[in-house]
């Protein structure tokens, strides 16, 4: 409980796991990079007790809650009530001094509290006023999530704070704007705030919700039973309150003639980052990692380098962590990595390539790399299997989901294995022999799809 | 570079060995026998080296190589201790204790330009900021000459770092006669930080010898102690490896290396070793036979010694080069082998790692590779020998030290 000694700015460390040995002529260098942020000696559970921060002790932050108030939220009526309760629970979890607002989302965005384009500052009075305002929330209208996000962005930008975060709840499809509109809104908001997204019930589109979380570097999940919303919202807000630094980027330097094959987060979830590169000087690029509390994430890099003679050694990549726009005051939406001041967070990791004629050395695969290659394939085959199942290709779906069962079992990903077992009957997990269940609960299928990217770490 | 041998594969301990391979059993061998490297064997008690060692004048007589007991402490009475270390020898040790350059204290100059692409600068980690190539390290190629002793070490063509190390030096015995020292170590590549192990071991053994010899310690005893000192230095590396590191990678071996060393006085030649690094005796007069003076601590050597396999069969086995003895915290019971010889004619002692002898295995092959003027131009000869290994493929790090026999007073060495 000794949170008082905790520093507000976490210390970052970078660890590289790789087999640096390549055979003669070898080009592909794989590495798993673990990035860990620690806040000065206290345990990670500090984030679970945010109320122990006194005002001013935690980082300055602003949060906007976006609650779906479309007509469907009244079916069943408990859904709207649960959403109100969950939002109230999240407001109770706000640290004193944090800026916040509540937006009711329909085919347009309406500021429920405090209104007029302002943010309230969390305290006993404002919390109470906000909860009063929530009671007036009713259901009616359509769904245009892009407008909610743009409103949240405008509100969050009005505060001079370190952490900007959104929490979004929807129960239906994004029917009242085009997919392009939502995509444009996500692009406009990317890098300006982070956002967790939740789908309640089973009438929403998994790919829409996961795209919001992915684009805005937050988490996605399903809350199939609206009764579970309050607990989930509390947890989400606790995590948001635990964030200590925003806009961290992974800076990757690679040598001349090298190409970055891919960069992806592989723990706690699989998240493709390759295409989110912003150039950052000669042979370097930045990949956005979002905001960090006390936590650890793993990234899988693959770099293709020009081969060198046996016995030679090359630096295939240098990994460092930077905040491209320290202070966060004047942030731009487009690539701004080139100019301005950049705060380097100190930690770096070296990914090496060493050419050898020792076959035993060059053919062994690093256990971390092997593990996360498997976890990434797991997420992929679940997605493919469910897509094939939807279009009626039962043989294809069985093959993909069978492979998923095999991978989940072999890697010890018990949570995903359990979710798979609700969609297929497992005959033999080791060989991936499965039969598709004839009747699958919609909630089970959506849960599997939403959580397919969750990974486990290597058993040590 | 040899992997450590599997303890379970270790054959039964071979019996005492006497013969030096490559020496004809009859005729007039200048070099008939090596000392029994196994201390358990009772001493053959022929000529006590210490009786004649300080006086090199009688070397003209074909004194038979004298098997001297492994631990001559008991017979140390013959060694004169009429001068204290501080009188004469003390300074010698200090001068030569830090010969091998430490790459960590001599980083690349910051503004250096890459040797690979000639376009980028070299960063603090030793890589080119443009093409990423690692820059040559100090240890990639090392040369040193101390009086009449010279050594050269090279990374070779197939390994990315040099895990060999050497140390050479000269000092004087209490009677004022010169003595040359050479130590060569080969890091065990399957262990962690083999480069640090070889560096620590070579420095510690050299320092120990240069300290003990001027004080009158018998060279063979000094050799025994030097190997123990080297062993302690390598063990200390394992200790300083943090608890955290050990928990992170418990499967990693403790740092380890081989060692081979030679001490040459006016009349005596003492060698000591653990592992598969070797010494060879190459007489200046090539009509006399050359000889290998060490017996590898290797799987193949043990199989042959135990009579379980023929030499050809044993060396063709994939386990042939697995070493059965090394310095390091995880070593089996440490058995420093030492042997003393009294060559009856001038020659040169080749002290080397397997990176060289893989390309000149037999004593005759080695003699062929050693230039005729090796005793006069040891540094040149050492370079030639490294070149021989590189021409052969340079598959391993290559290190060789050359020590002319007999030792001659400083200044009178090279002609």
From TrEMBL, chain A:
PROSITE patterns in alphabetical order: VWFA (PS50234)
Pfam family of the protein (one): VWA_3_C
Cited SMART domains: VWA
Organism: Streptomyces variabilis
InterPro entries in UniProt: VWA_3_C, VWF_A, vWFA_dom_sf
Lineage: Bacteria, Bacillati, Actinomycetota, Actinomycetes, Kitasatosporales
CDD domains for the chain: vWFA
Protein name (Swiss-Prot/TrEMBL): VWA domain-containing protein
Top-rank taxon: Bacteria
Ranges of residues in domain VWFA: 62-245
């Amino acid at each position: 409980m000794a949170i008082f000694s905790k520093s507000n700015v976490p210390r970052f460390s970078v660890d590289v796991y790789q087999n640096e040995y390549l055979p003669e002529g070898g080009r592909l260098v794989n590495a798993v990079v673990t990035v860990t942020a620690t806040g000065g000696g206290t345990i990670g559970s500090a984030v679970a007790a945010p109320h122990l921060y006194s005002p001013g002790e935690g980082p300055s932050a602003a949060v906007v809650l976006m609650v779906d108030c479309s007509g469907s939220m009244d079916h069943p009526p408990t859904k709207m009530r649960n959403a109100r309760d969950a939002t109230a629970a999240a407001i109770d979890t706000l640290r004193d001094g944090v800026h916040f607002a509540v937006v009711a989302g329909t085919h347009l965005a309406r500021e429920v509290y405090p209104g007029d384009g302002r943010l309230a500052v969390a305290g006993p009075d404002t919390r109470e006023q906000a909860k009063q305002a929530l009671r007036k929330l009713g259901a009616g209208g359509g769904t245009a999530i892009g407008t909610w996000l743009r409103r949240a962005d405008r509100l969050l930008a009005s505060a001079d704070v370190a952490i900007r975060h959104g929490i979004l709840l929807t129960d239906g499809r994004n029917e009242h704007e085009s997919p392009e509109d939502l995509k444009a809104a996500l692009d406009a908001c990317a890098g300006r705030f982070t956002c967790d997204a939740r789908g309640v019930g089973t009438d929403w589109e998994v790919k829409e919700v996961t795209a919001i979380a992915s684009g805005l570097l937050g988490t996605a999940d399903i809350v199939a039973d609206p009764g579970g919303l309050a607990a989930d919202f509390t947890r989400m807000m606790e995590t948001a309150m635990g964030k200590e630094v925003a806009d961290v980027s992974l800076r990757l330097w690679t040598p001349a003639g090298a190409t970055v094959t891919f960069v992806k987060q592989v723990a706690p979830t699989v998240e493709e980052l390759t295409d989110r590169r912003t150039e950052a000087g000669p042979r370097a690029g930045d990949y956005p990692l979002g905001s960090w509390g006390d936590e650890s994430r793993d990234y899988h890099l693959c770099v293709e380098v020009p081969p060198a003679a046996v016995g030679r050694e090359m630096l295939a990549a240098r990994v460092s962590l930077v905040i491209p726009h320290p202070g966060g005051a004047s942030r731009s939406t487009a690539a701004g990595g080139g100019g301005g001041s950049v705060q380097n967070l100190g930690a770096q990791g070296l990914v090496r390539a060493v050419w050898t004629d020792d076959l035993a050395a060059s053919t062994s695969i690093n256990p971390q790399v092997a593990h996360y290659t498997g976890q990434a394939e797991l997420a992929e085959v679940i997605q493919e299997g469910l897509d094939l199942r939807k279009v009626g290709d039962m043989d294809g779906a069985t093959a993909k989901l069978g492979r998923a069962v095999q991978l989940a079992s072999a890697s010890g990903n018990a949570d995903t294995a359990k979710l798979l077992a609700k969609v297929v009957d497992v005959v033999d997990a080791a060989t991936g022999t499965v039969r598709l269940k004839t009747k699958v609960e919609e909630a089970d299928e959506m849960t599997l799809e939403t959580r397919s990217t969750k990974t486990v770490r290597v058993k040590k | 570079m040899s992997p450590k041998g599997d303890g379970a594969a270790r054959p039964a301990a071979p019996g005492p060995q006497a013969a030096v391979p490559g020496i004809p059993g009859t005729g007039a061998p200048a070099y008939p026998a090596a000392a029994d490297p196994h201390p358990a064997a009772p001493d053959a008690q022929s000529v006590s080296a210490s009786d004649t060692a300080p006086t090199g004048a009688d070397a003209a007589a074909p004194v038979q190589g004298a098997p001297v007991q492994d631990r001559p402490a008991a017979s140390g009475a013959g060694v004169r201790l009429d001068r204290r270390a501080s009188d004469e020898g003390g300074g010698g040790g200090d001068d030569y204790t830090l010969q091998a350059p430490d790459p960590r204290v001599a980083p690349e100059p910051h503004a250096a330009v890459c040797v690979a692409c000639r376009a980028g600068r070299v960063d603090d980690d030793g890589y080119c900021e443009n093409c990423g190539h690692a820059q040559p390290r100090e240890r990639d190629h090392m040369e040193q000459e101390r009086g009449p002793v010279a050594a050269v070490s090279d990374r070779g063509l197939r390994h990315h770092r040099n895990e060999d190390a050497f140390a050479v030096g000269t000092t004087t015995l209490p009677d004022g006669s010169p003595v040359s020292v050479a130590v060569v170590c080969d890091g065990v590549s399957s262990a962690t930080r083999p480069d640090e192990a070889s560096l620590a071991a070579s420095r510690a053994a050299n320092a120990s010898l240069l300290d003990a010899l001027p004080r009158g310690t018998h060279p063979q005893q000094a050799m025994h102690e030097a190997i123990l000192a080297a062993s302690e230095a390598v063990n200390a590396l394992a200790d300083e490896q943090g608890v955290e590191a050990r928990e992170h990678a418990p499967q990693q071996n403790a740092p380890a290396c081989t060692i081979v060393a030679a001490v040459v006085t006016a009349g005596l030649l003492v060698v000591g070793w653990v592992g598969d690094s070797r010494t060879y005796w190459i007489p200046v007069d090539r009509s006399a036979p050359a000889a290998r003076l060490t017996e590898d601590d290797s799987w193949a050597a043990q199989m042959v010694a135990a009579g379980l396999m023929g030499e050809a069969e044993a060396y063709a086995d994939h386990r042939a080069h697995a070493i059965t003895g090394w310095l390091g915290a995880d070593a089996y019971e440490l058995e420093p082998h030492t042997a003393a010889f009294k060559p009856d004619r001038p020659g040169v002692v080749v002290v080397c790692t397997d990176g060289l002898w893989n390309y000149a295995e037999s004593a005759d092959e080695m003699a062929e590779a050693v230039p005729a003027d090796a005793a006069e131009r040891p540094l040149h000869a050492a370079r030639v020998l490294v070149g021989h290994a590189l021409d052969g493929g340079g598959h391993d790090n290559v290190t060789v030290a050359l020590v002319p026999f007999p030792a001659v007073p400083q200044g009178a060495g090279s002609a």
